[in-house]
Design a protein that fits this description.
InterPro entries: Calcineurin-like_PHP_lpxH, Metallo-depent_PP-like, MPP_YfcE, PdiEstase_YfcE_CS, Phosphodiesterase_MJ0936/Vps29. The protein is of the alpha/beta class. Helices cover 16% and strands 29% of the residues. It has one domain: Metallo-dependent phosphatases (Purple Acid Phosphatase, chain A, domain 2). The strands form two sheets. It has a six-stranded mixed sheet, covered by helices on one side. The protein has a five-stranded mixed sheet with strand order 4-5-6-8-7, with no helix packed on it.
């Protein structure tokens, strides 16, 4: 299974177009969106090319391959524009090797506040806008970074799960973080 991860689009049309182009060229089976899809949120500036209705339209064209969770900037009004469910606070993905991916945005569950997990499970979240792929205690913490508002000097980034490797990449091809499962 190959998964493509994006987080924190925040309604940016340019960022969404870039994500979809990378997703389609990656050959991934699913686009995993880790929240903050349409709204920029009260703590962020309005992003360049802010166009939530057009972002929804572009994403809806791929609704049959999207797995999404709710971010702290997502609301029921946002869900009304989207053809795929995105109001769950978390979702599980089971890998063929029995490992579990716990998908969440990061504002409720994260490296510091974890649900009940087994050794080797992965918490995949956004919210911090900082790419991470590392063991922390008994679990792997994975964050693809942010497409629209990267922080701490990082470039805009996305994530990939390819066979047994989780990694965060810039759109120019640089690997920012990587870990073997």
């Amino acid at each position: 299974m190959k998964l493509f991860f994006a987080s924190d689009l925040h309604g940016s049309l340019d960022a969404t177009e870039q994500v979809l182009a990378a997703y389609l060229s990656s050959g991934a089976e699913h686009l995993v969106i880790l929240g903050d899809v349409l709204n920029h949120g009260p703590r962020n500036p309005v992003p360049e090319s802010y166009n939530p209705p057009k972002v929804a339209e572009l994403l809806n064209a791929h609704s049959d391959s999207i797995i999404a969770v709710r971010g702290n900037c997502d609301s029921e009004v946002d869900q009304m524009l989207l053809a795929f469910p995105m109001m769950a606070d978390y979702a599980w993905v089971m890998l063929a090797n029995g490992q579990r991916l716990f998908l969440t945005h990061g504002h409720l569950y994260n490296a510091e506040k974890r649900p009940a997990l087994k050794r080797g499970d992965v918490i995949a979240h956004g919210h911090t806008h900082i790419p991470v792929a590392e063991w922390q205690g008994e679990q792997i913490i994975f964050n693809p970074g942010s497409i629209t508002f990267p922080r701490n000097g990082y470039a805009a980034s996305y994530g990939l799960l390819e066979e047994t490797t989780l990694s965060a990449h810039t759109f120019s091809g640089e690997v920012l973080a990587s870990i073997s499962l």
